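thought: fold this chain, then report.
action: predict
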Amino acid sequence: MTTTADRPPPAKPAARRTPTGAAQRLEPLAERLLGGGLPVRVRMWDGSEAGPDDAPTVHVRSRRALRRLLWEPGELGLAEAYITGDIDLAEDLGDGLRAMRRAVSERGLTPPAPSLADRLRAAGTALRLGAVGPRPPVPAARAGLRGALHSKARDRAAISHHYDLSNAFYALLLDETMAYSCGYWTSDAPGYGPADAQRDKLELICRKLGLRPGARLLDIGCGWGSLTLHAAQHHGVRVTAVTLAAEQAAYVRGQVATRGLEELVEVLNIDYRDIAGRPETRGAYDAVSTIEMGEHVGDAEYPAFTRILHDSLRPQGRVLVQQMSRGADAPGGGAFIESYIAPDMHMRPVGETVGLLEGSGLEVRDVEALREHYVLTVDAWRRTLEERWSDFVDLVGEETARVWRLYLVGGALAFEERRMGVDQILCVRPDRTGRAAMEPTRRDWYEAQR
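observation:
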């Protein structure tokens, strides 16, 4: 019979090995900088992982991603790591970003300002992981503007950076209307799509402006001419179309010739400020439109811009401004947008824009928010990008295609979450007696679209 004393002592449990992968080395530092636990699962280049099992998985594919964040902390460094493929998401980018933002919000993560000790700790961790080194090359798609803010030369470069990417690129991305602005989605019936929403938007603008055959329209920031061509072709309006982008001007002139509209449309490749120097434009127009161009004007320059809108109109003439806005507590474009998409762009809450328009002598008569319409519009562009991904990569390269994927996904999310909006603001220049000659109701604007 074996007694307890005769039994061998129980075996000691095997020593638990402390994980030493890149993910485990970074996790404490990341949590310190985030102000709480990781909101995503991180998979590093060495296969190690950290973070919640049910969260979106971020692939950090190389040490260069960390080096980018050391040199450019925050949104821009993360964006450039994604653009270059140093970071990727296992899930759909939109679903992943949405889940990440939700996790941050639900956990109430508030990153503290990094202390000197935090910075030294980050540098030490990066050094141990072999991520310290010279600044990685800036992606070629990043804008490099020079000169005084909103000088004519700098504005031309900023517009060229975005809109002169190539007409072929935008023809691939947009529908046949070539309208690069928020559509107006009046139906959810099968077969109703982006081109229908754009035509409904163009028609709504023409109705709000009260356009009739022979009327004169000044279209500032005409883009690829969607409104210019629609107003001339379907309403018999004489249009002066203004764009700072050379590629756009060439495209619109080609469409004018193809459609036989030379007697109705004049295309000017000029800065909007040059309109004020043309005596023949003062008080000459029955209507003025500016569709998502005001965001490029700049904060200090906007009062002078609204004065040009006012002075170009005859008494009782109307102006329609369709313009993106930001939420009262939202930052606006952000570092990525301003570096890669719309350099020098300025957005303000819609109420401030209304005040500036009124300050120029215009009377604001109607404001219509289209925020949800932009979610649908941007989602349509994003689907086109994904469906034709290989064509976009062949045309502009993978880095630029990834810039646009991030831009469209992030833009749709910003409109969805009310960080950004877009509004149609209709104004009139009353005559000296205060008469505006406006319809007593909005009925005529919408009846045709039912």
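thought: worth noting. Residues 66 and 131 are 6 Å apart (CA to CA).
final: tokens above.
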